[in-house]
TrEMBL record:
Record keywords: Glycosyltransferase, Transferase
Pfam family for this entry, one: Glycos_transf_1
Single GO molecular function: glycosyltransferase activity
Signal peptide: none
Residue span(s) of domain Glycosyl transferase family: 225-380
InterPro entries, per database record: Glyco_trans_1
Spans traversing the lipid bilayer: none
Record's protein name: Glycosyltransferase involved in cell wall bisynthesis
Length: 413
């Protein structure tokens, strides 16, 4: 078993909404890697998932803002200024700044300098999770130290970043991996060497999501005392489309009985609660806020339908293949979701769930009406998609692929 040190740069750690990252990193630990997690931000979530408590990685928090720790930043800059590569990097930093004249560019250089000075191991691999800010810091640090690096790209970081920035990082990274076919095709189209871009689905730790073998009640929306239970898990942010979902729910027939549970934090919660009230459905909606994985699992098992109305926002932000959708599917829970990004890679035909156009509350309402009134269809689709998850979305597959990439330096297996 390898004892290789792996330094992983992330935007924030731990984060409830990035369970897939913690799960993957824990898998790498179990594969024998010694991890140092370098976080650009301190945690803001009050809760933690069980996987965070199992992690054995060392933690290094860089200055979130340079003025918060000026002496630490100054020591980093002084130390890196002794390296010839630091001075060779500066013209590139200036070019980046001229294309993107923001304080963030300067912050990334300062954070990279601190990372170089406080580098945790002489013989370590360097990897970034997300190809936007974490990869920028990683790229600068690697160029100062004269070492290779690699990157995992996901969704927002791919679709909201300028093409010139992505091209540069893909050219300098030894290899890149991403988690949806749509993101994979986009990055390959930007890369000088497309063979250095790889596709690897995150998958689930199926030990944390064991099969749900109980029989669900055959609710059909006709019993006021036992309504159909709809659930969604996700941050209350624009790309999740919860306003579209609420408008769709409001268009359901008045004599159809359902409830809706939302689980997740996010800045749009108050707006969504107000919208539910304006639409006259507030009494059917429950907003449970940020919860841990055990509460999420219990919610999947108590529900009849999982629904997520993802959209592409004006700045290009979008979901990839939401981990919560795979989680719900693992519990034989029938899913209704938007037909964009990586979602059709899970719900690849009608036998596996329902896909609807994004930004279309009326279409969503019609689909939800069928899902609510057809418990037989829910059961069939839920069983089929659960079988697909257990066959193709085991996180051990992605950990094995990553281990191969780290050991081969990105050569295609």
């Amino acid at each position: 078993m390898t004892q290789q040190r792996l330094v992983v740069v992330v935007k924030g750690y731990p984060r409830l909404s990035e369970t897939f990252i913690a799960q993957e990193l824990r898998g790498l630990e179990l594969a024998g890697y010694k991890l140092t997690i370098v976080s650009l931000r301190h945690p803001t979530d009050r809760k933690r998932h069980a996987v965070h408590d199992e992690m054995q990685a060392d933690l290094l928090y860089l200055p979130e803002y340079l003025h918060h720790e000026p002496l630490r930043v100054l020591r980093g800059l002084v130390a890196t200024a002794r390296r010839a590569r630091f001075w060779r990097l500066l013209p590139a930093v200036v070019r980046d700044f001229l294309r993107d004249p923001s304080r963030n560019r300067l912050r990334r250089l300062g954070q990279a300098a601190v990372l170089v000075r406080e580098w945790p191991s002489k013989n370590a691999l360097l990897h970034a999770h997300f190809i936007h800010t974490p990869a920028s810091v990683t790229d600068y640090a690697a160029r100062i130290m004269g070492m290779d690096w690699s990157v995992s790209a996901h969704a927002k970081d791919i679709w909201t970043q300028a093409a010139w920035d992505l091209r540069g990082k893909l050219a300098r990274a030894r290899w890149a991996v991403t988690c949806t076919a749509s993101g994979f095709a986009h990055l390959q189209g930007l890369a000088r060497e497309p063979a250095r871009v790889h596709l690897s689905y995150h998958g689930l730790n199926l030990n944390r999501f064991p099969p749900f073998e109980a029989r669900r009640e055959l609710r059909d929306g006709q019993d006021r005392a036992d309504p159909v239970r709809l659930v969604s898990v996700g941050r209350a942010v624009p790309k999740k489309g919860y306003d579209v979902l609420l408008r769709g729910l409001a268009q359901l027939p008045g004599d159809l009985y359902w409830t809706f549970d939302h689980m997740g934090g996010g800045g749009d919660l108050q707006m969504l609660q107000a919208l539910a009230k304006d639409l006259g459905i507030a009494d059917r909606c429950r907003w449970r806020g940020a919860v841990d994985q055990s509460e999420v699992l219990a919610a999947y098992r108590a529900a009849d339908v999982f629904v997520l109305a993802s959209r592409i926002t004006a700045d290009g932000d979008r979901d990839g293949l939401p981990n919560v959708l795979v989680e719900a599917a693992s519990q034989t829970l029938a899913c209704v979701a938007s037909d964009l990004s990586g979602i059709p890679e899970l719900i690849s035909d009608p036998s596996l769930g329902w896909l609807v156009p994004s930004e279309d509350p009326a279409a969503l309402a019609l689909t939800l009406q069928e899902a609510i009134t057809r418990p037989d269809l829910r059961a069939a689709k839920g069983a089929a998609v659960a079988a697909k998850v257990r066959q193709h979305f085991d996180y051990r597959n992605s950990v094995a692929q990553l281990t191969c990439l780290f050991e081969s330096g990105g050569a295609r297996p």
